[in-house]
Amino acid sequence: MGTAKVEPTAEPKQIRRTAAIGREAREIPASQFGRVRALTSYGMTRVQVAELYGVTVEEIEKIVRRPDQPRRS
């Protein structure tokens, strides 16, 4: 009987996302403030949310700390 060659399993490569260098910090529209609060309360870190929106962590902290604004009708 011949022996079968067993190849080692390939380990998955981890992809590290890097921030774009030189990109201007964007401003999060007020319509997204609720979403930002929801993302942070459902388990995303403030750093992750900041990366998602392309802003600083300080901007996310301001939004999370700010009380909900009353909606205009």
List the helices and strands and how they pair.
Elements: H1 33-41, H2 46-53, H3 57-65
Helix pairs in contact: 2-3
Can you offer a commentary on this structure?
With 73 residues, this protein is mostly helical. The protein has a domain at 30-65. It has 3 helices and no strands. Helix 2 crosses helix 3 (57-65). It is rod-shaped.
From the N-terminal CA to the C-terminal CA, the straight-line distance is 81 Å
Number of helices: 3
Radius of gyration: 21 Å
Structural class: mainly alpha
**N to C succession of SSEs:** HHH
Percent of sequence in beta strands: under 5%
Key traits:
single chain; 73 residues; mainly alpha; rod-shaped
Offer a quick outline of the entry:
This protein is mainly alpha-helical. The protein has helices at residues 33-41, 46-53, 57-65.
